[in-house]
Amino acid sequence: MKTITEMGLYIENLKEVIEMLNQQGNELADYIYPVLNQCKTEKEKHELCQTAKALYLLNSGIVIVKKFESPDFIIDYNGIRIGLEHETVKNLTKVNTEGSKYNLVDNALKIFNSKHPLYKHFESKFPTCPYMLVSVDFIKEFTYKQNQKKELSEQTADYIWNMSQLITSDKLDFIDHIHISPHIENSFYYRSDINQTQKLNYSRIIEAIEKKEKLVQKYREKSKTNIQWLLLTTGNLSADSFEIEELIVEKFESSFDEIYLLDDFKSKLFKIK
Questions:
Q1: pLDDT at position 15, please?
Q2: CA 200 → CA 44, 139, 169, 261, distances in Å?
């Protein structure tokens, strides 16, 4: 029987989703729901979900106290307040080529939410995860012009609604596949060709750490917490993400008190400082 640590948050097999949610969905939701309403953007909600997953994998009784700005979160570990900064490690060479597809999917979500606010597709079956996580696969050769974005986004949002309602409609010619599974909020994401992801190397990790290194003292002063952690995340089903080697053994020097690296898809957490 697989656990959440083996399967990841984004799972394609619905039977495994059901099994996971029945056994462990409440535990992960306990980290997220107390501060979910403090997150104002989709980006902040995504960071919250990844942070919750990392803390869940630590299995240490850590509580997310609140969403913060610098650092991103304040957490509590046995009565000790800790600042936690979240940083997504991306393959910068692929961000521009994939960005337009992410933007279309993000825009489709905004249209969907405006038409069907707080729609709870899985409410009767999964009270703790009543919303939809929708993965969108485009056909390989798909591109579009900026003046087509609004129309294509609306078509995508309506097509997803029809799928959720079991309404028969013509398949959009620019979409290859759409998959819907339970989630803690309605969320759409573009699933690019993960077979093209590159392995995360040490120099890219160092770059990500150094980007935040100069801000550690600022985090301490603003949060009024001396202890600062850094959470690096990657492996989230997109071509601009990275594949993490099975075993990360090298430790990194930093002013952060602890640094963790999360493989989001495989739900594996590495302590690298």
A1: 46
A2: 24, 26, 41, 11
Burial of 234 (0-12, 13-18, 19+ CB in 10 A): buried
Selection from 99, 104, 120 nearest residue 159 by Cα: 104
Which CATH number does 44-91+197-271 carry? 3.40.1350
Closest alpha carbon to 239 in 192, 174, 185: 192
10 Å Cβ neighbour count for 244? Answer: 23
Alpha helices in 37-177 (DSSP H): 42-58, 92-115, 149-164
> Shortest CA distance to 58 belongs to which of 244, 252, 229?
229
- Please name the amino acid found at residue 154: E
Query: Contact 237/266 with Cβ under 8 angstroms?
Result: no
Distance CA 226, CA 113 (A): 40
**In the chain, where the domains are located:** 44-91+197-271, 95-194
pLDDT in tens, 12-35: 444 444 454 445 556 777 888 889
Structure tokens at 116: 């069907």
Higher-pLDDT residue of 3 and 211 is 211
How many C-beta atoms lie closer than 10 Å to residue 134's C-beta? 25
CA atoms within 13 A on the CB side of 90: 14
Residue 53, pLDDT above cutoff 80: yes
Count of H-run helices and E-run strands, the chain: 7, 11
Q: Model's pTM, two decimal places? A: 0.64
Beta bridge partners of 212: none
Crossing angle of the two packed helices 14-36 and 42-58, in degrees rounded to 10: 110
Residues 35 and 51: beta-carbon distance below 8 Å:
no
